[in-house]
Amino acid sequence: MLENKNTENTSLESLGEFGLIEHLTKNFTLKNESSIKGIGDDAAVLDFKENKAVISTDLLIEGVHFDLSYMPLKHLGYKSVMVNLSDIYAMNAKATQVTVSIAVSNRFPLEALEEFYSGVELAAEIYNVDVVGGDTTSSTKGMLISITAIGESKEEDITYRNGARPNDLLVVSGDLGAAYCGLQVLEREKEVFKVNPNSNPDLSMYTYIVERQLKPEARRDIVELLKTLDVKPTSMIDISDGLSSEILHLCKQSGVGCNLFEDKIPLDPTVIAACEEFNIDSTLVALSGGEDYELLFTIDQKEFLKIKGNPNLTVVGHMTDQNEGAHLISRNNSKIPLTAQGWNSFSND
Ligand code: ADP
Ligand code: MG
């Protein structure tokens, strides 16, 4: 699927490493005051003045983290930046720079990398971050991507995972489970395509969930919203692995317990419909689906009025004393221990 039949393919060898880097990065301009030196020297130079630097890195491997048979390379470039920016926003910080390192095998032509970089460039443009460096090398098999995101924040605004206290409210942005449902649709279509390469499926009813899988957005807007509302979360994490495992991270690092209410978990109607179609439990999908890239945070109860009624934010539970443990309070009011996989009763099925 990599081959674009309408264009000539240019081998990477024909450009050489330096020609390739120059070609791929020629459009990158520096937009942030903190970017003193970007691509072109031995190292980038940044200046955050009185702010603290916040840094996060991720490694993505073809066949493990992404599948190029349904992931267009432009989307992959975009998503690779998003998953990293999400970690910066989860610190309540402003993302300012990224570095992008790639390794590809010789099955990738220049045009494939151009596609990937067009996604990186779009993400950098929309989220106002500068691409200030990276590394380019070959791999014996497949594609590897390593992105480092850099951000800045006033020291007192930085939000860690360890600040939640008993009675704090647990809040989530957006809705959950859609990226996992989108993946189920894409996996199914991949199998259909194997049997019938001429199938031309109508995926329009799945637009939202497929987009959530292929083109997620990091929640910069939520960090800005919290500043506007004058709410400083006591703890925060981004939801990359599923609500359940992220709640357990907050609980463990903060030394608290939690009650999560099943009927409060925000689900898009298309997620509920897809779960019915695939015969999977929508609560389980929200708890352990992953890749939603929403923000999960705790706030002091006295901040509740500031967020009340905001369509982007849902209170899904509250923190408790540590010895009470972390539980899902189900719709029929039973109390089920949360596990990283979802909830306890499920693992016994
Ligand atoms: P070095 O030999 O020091 O690793 P390179 O020749 O790899 O230097 O890189 C030259 C410049 O290009 C550096 O500024 C580096 O950060 C940047 N660069 C290299 N590869 C990439 C890439 N894939 N994306 C963005 N910038 C890159
Ligand atoms: Mg290098």
TrEMBL record:
Question: Any idea where the PurM-like N-terminal domain is?
Answer: 40-152
Q: Which residues bind Mg(2+) 5?
A: D241
For this protein, the Enzyme Commission number is 2.7.4.16
Residues holding Mg(2+) 3: D42, D87, D238
Report residues binding Mg(2+) 4. Answer: D42, S56, D87
Keywords of the record, alphabetical order, are:
ATP-binding, Kinase, Magnesium, Metal-binding, Nucleotide-binding, Thiamine biosynthesis, Transferase
Give the note.
Answer: Reaction mechanism of ThiL seems to utilize a direct, inline transfer of the gamma-phosphate of ATP to TMP rather than a phosphorylated enzyme intermediate.
Specify the protein name: Thiamine-monophosphate kinase
Q: What is the lineage of its organism?
A: Bacteria, Pseudomonadati, Bacteroidota, Flavobacteriia, Flavobacteriales
